[in-house]
Amino acid sequence: MFFKLCKYEFKSILRTLVPIYLAVIAVSFINMFMGVGSLSNGYYNNLIQNISFGKDILGLFQTVSMFAYFGVMVALSVLTLIVIIQRFYKGLLCDEGYLMFTLPVKPWLLIAAKGTTALVMTVASGITAGISILMLLIGALGPVDFFAAVASPELWLKIGQLFQAVPSWPLLMLEVLVLIIFSGFSKLFHLYFSMSLGHLANRHRILMSVVAYIGISMVLSFISGFFMIMANSIPFFQTFFNSINFDSGISGFTAAMHLVLIASIVACVIQSAIFFFGSERILSKYLNLE
Amino acid sequence: MNQELITARGLTKSYGTKTAIDHIDLSVGHGRIIGLLGPNGSGKTTFIKLLCGLLHPTSGELKIDGHSPGVESKAIISYLPDRMYFADWMRTSDLAAFFADFYADFDRTKALEMFKSLGIGQNDRIKTMSKGTKEKAQLALIMSRKAQLYLLDEPIGGVDPAARDFILNTILTNYNENGTVLLSTHLISDIERVLDEVIFLQNGKVVRHDTVDNIREQEGKSVDQLFREIFTYGH
């Protein structure tokens, strides 16, 4: 059932996001040759030196494609966020909710399917942005220089040295990956929980969702600030931190990284769990579609 | 299979201070066509939403085929809400695929046949359909399930009289013989001929639950007339 729910979720999200992904790639491709990417290199100097207004025309092309580039990048992030919010709000708390909540599935599965799909799409948007930046980089360096740089043994030697210096790098990478997943979930479920709380109000549900979102953010800042103060002033934490060897160069740095990453993962898992079960309880017990 | 399909004991639902369903005691058997009748705001939609699990009772007990509203009850209930509940980008074929994925009792061939006889193409998008066509498409899907309980909230509310007859015939000829159809409406004269039982709701209370034959014999009048008496003199 979970995968069937995800399948329909993907179908409806992809309709909106695939066109913007294509637009991002297309505009990046143009910029690779004309705009942001090619500003620093002299691709077109030979071509335009004999035309009196050639430089102006080229400048115009570059400006327009740069604006287009920033436009689609902003659209990419804003649309991803809006689609994620809409898929939950319209898909569960408005008319479509009549369909979803009468399916023979438990409400937590509905939330999990929405969350999983939203996370995958956030990653997909991130990858699209990454590809776009890579394309600009290729444009700026010129394809030949770029691939020469990527293929150069020096670069790989440096990377190899870095890996050798940090023997626990596979663990670090895994921790980063887990952190990305759970910090993604914590932010998504924060949105879902806010909308579920807003749904409890009889009127002004969207406004109440925004209020709930801001309220929760404030509580989170307060709690993390509180932990900082605790960590600084309680003897147990002080001895704990002192026991970690921070001073011996890269290995001390790695130890600190592990600590920070694991602490962040734990914080994100706790947040995700609270927001997820909070939303689940509200949608199971206090569902009230209008 | 339980003796009774629906049993409600002391079923109450309130929104804040307003009581929409007020201590309903009721039992409904299998294989019946039942009209849930009452004026606007009498609690018809609330009662149906409680049955299909969209709302939770404030107090009291509600069982559908022995189960509290939940996954088991949702699997045997086919619900037609009083609104369009599909995303408007979906095509007719998407709708059928969706139902086939989630409901084991859905008969896809039957649904596609019904779409065909309604003149709805497989690639028609919901967005481009008229209000009446949307209602018909949704009804075709609902009635293509072999459900134990069909809950139809105002199934003939938004369509013209000719379509009304078509919809009633669709309901009559397609529902599962062992299943029960519970339909809410205030257009009683149109549906009276198909009903086995009626439940009159007023201010969240059941004021009468009887078979149509009994009403005709004891009162010597049609359900429509009785409805007008109960709800006109009452106010």
Automatic annotation (TrEMBL), chain A:
Superkingdom classification of source: Bacteria
Record's keyword annotation contains Nucleus: no
Keywords (A to Z) from UniProt: Membrane, Transmembrane, Transmembrane helix
Annotated protein name in UniProt: ABC transporter permease
Segments traversing the membrane: 20-44, 64-85, 118-142, 162-185, 206-230, 250-277
First and last residue of the signal peptide: none
Source organism phylogeny: Bacteria, Bacillati, Bacillota, Clostridia, Lachnospirales
Species, as recorded: Lacrimispora algidixylanolytica
TrEMBL record, chain B:
UniProt keyword list: ATP-binding, Nucleotide-binding, Transport
CDD domains named in the record: ABC_DR_subfamily_A
Manganese recorded as keyword: no
Occurrences of domain ABC transporter (ranges): 6-228
InterPro entries: AAA+_ATPase, ABC_transporter-like_ATP-bd, ABC_Transporter_VariousFunc, P-loop_NTPase
Pfam family, one: ABC_tran
Keyword ATP-binding recorded: yes
GO molecular function: ATP binding; ATP hydrolysis activity
Protein known as: ABC transporter
Organism annotation: Lacrimispora algidixylanolytica
